[in-house]
Amino acid sequence: MELFELTLAEAAAAVEERSLSPVELTDSVLGRIDAVEERLQAYVTLTGESARDAAARAEREIAAGGYRGPLHGIPFGLKDMIDAAGMPTTASSRVRADHFAQADSAVAGRLSAAGGVLIGKTHTHEFAYGLTTPQTRNAWDQDRIAGGSSGGSAVAVAAGTATFALGTDTGGSIRVPAALNGLVGLKPTYGLVPRHGVVALSWSLDHVGPLTRTVRDAALVLSALVGPAPEDPGSLRTAPTAYPLSPGDSDLTGLRVGVPVNYYFDRVAPEVEAAVREAHTQLADMGAELVEVEIPMTRYVQATQWGLMVPEATAAHERTLRSVPELYAPDVRILLEAGELVSAGDYLRAQRSRTLMRQAWLSMFDGIDVLAAPTVPMTATKTDQTSVSWPDGSTESVSDAYVRLSAPANITGLPSLSLPVGRDHAGLPVGMQLIGRPLGEAAVLRTGHAYETAHPWSRPPA
C-alpha cells in the first residue's frame, strides 16, 4: 500500500508512534497529485510548498513532544467555498476570480489548530449550486460525473490526493459525491459545525462536513470541527465535542433501524435498491432491529427544498447578479434569475412546510434510532447525460434525481451519513445514508462504523 492510500486513522496512528513522518505522507500525496490531477481535475488551487513547510513543522512539533492529536501532520483539502487565510476562495466561479481570504474560516482555523496540512482548495459546482461539478471527473470512471457540489473534495479523497477533505451540503452536496465516488460523507446536524467564513448558498440549509475513506475517519474529523463559534449566529451553543468509536465493534444489538416503506425506494435503480436492502439484512445480522416506517410529507419535499434554496441563493447573489451577470455559468445564472420570481408568500410557505416536516420527522424518530435508505437513486451517470427516465414513465433531470433523496435531511437539519454498500454491474459504488435525530451523530457514526467493520470496502483502482 502506498502512503497516499492510508486512511486518516491509519496515518494518524503511524504518525503518533513516529513510524511515519508527516513529510513522507505529504510528499506521497503531492506525488499522487502529480500523477492524476491532470485527468481528474479535483483542485482549483494547490499549495505544494506551504504544505511541505507545514508538514515539516508538524514533524518538528511531534518530535519535541507536541503531538496535537489525530489530524496532526495529515494532508487535507478544502472545498473552494471555505476561506483559508491568504488563499483565493473562488467558489469555482469567474465572479470571485480576484477574491483572497483575509482570515481563516472557523473550520479552517480549527483544522490548522489541530495540526492539519492544507494541500489545496478543491473544485465545486459554481457557488455549490449544482449536483455534478462539471470540471471534475469521477475517481472510478473518468467518463462519469463526480457528483456535486463537493465533487473536487470527494475525488481528491477517493483518488488519494488528500487524506480527507471538507465539503458543504445544501441539498446533498457532501453525500451525493461521496456516494458516487465510494466514500463516506457526513452532513452533521444543522449548526453543529460553524459556517463562519464559508460562502453561503442558502443560509438556512447550508452545512459543512467531512469526506473521508472510512466512518472512523469521519468521526475523527468531526471531533476537530464541532463547538460553538460566536461569530456564526447559526452555531449551536452546546453540543458533543468528541465521537469515539470502538475499533472492530460490529455489534448493533438494541439499535432500531428504520426501513422506509415509501419515498426512498420510489424511482430508484434496481441495483441500488438491491444493495441497500442487502445492507438492511446485514445490519439485522449484526443485531439491529429493523422497523418499517412511513416517511411523512413526501409530496412536499421538492417544493420545500427549492422554495427555500432558490430565493435564499438569489438574495445572496443580488449585487453581483445585477452587476456582472455574464460571469456566471448559464445553468447557475438561470437558477439565480429564477429566484427573483419567487414571492415572499411562497418563501414563507416553504418555511412553514419545513417546520411541519421537521416536527413530523421527529415524531417518526420516536420509534427508531436511525433511518437507513439509499443516498442517491442511481450510480454516477455519464458526463453528457442530462436526464433520467424511470419505468413509471416519469423523467427528471440528473440534478433533480440526485437531490431527491438527500434533501429531506437538509430541510429538517438532521444528521446524515453516506457510506458505500456495494457496486452496480459497471463496478460503480452504491451509497446508503443513515439519518439520525438532531445531534444524533454518535448513533449514525456507530451504525456506519459497525457496518464497515463487518463489510470492509475496497478502494477505486489506481
Automatic annotation (TrEMBL):
| InterPro entries in the record | Amidase, Amidase_CS, Amidase_dom, AS_sf
Superkingdom of this entry's organism?
Bacteria
Q: Which SUPFAM superfamilies match?
A: Amidase signature (AS) enzymes
Pfam families, alphabetically? Amidase (PF01425)
All residue ranges annotated as the Amidase domain in the record? 24-445
UniProt name for this protein: Amidase
From which organism does this entry originate?
Streptomyces mooreae
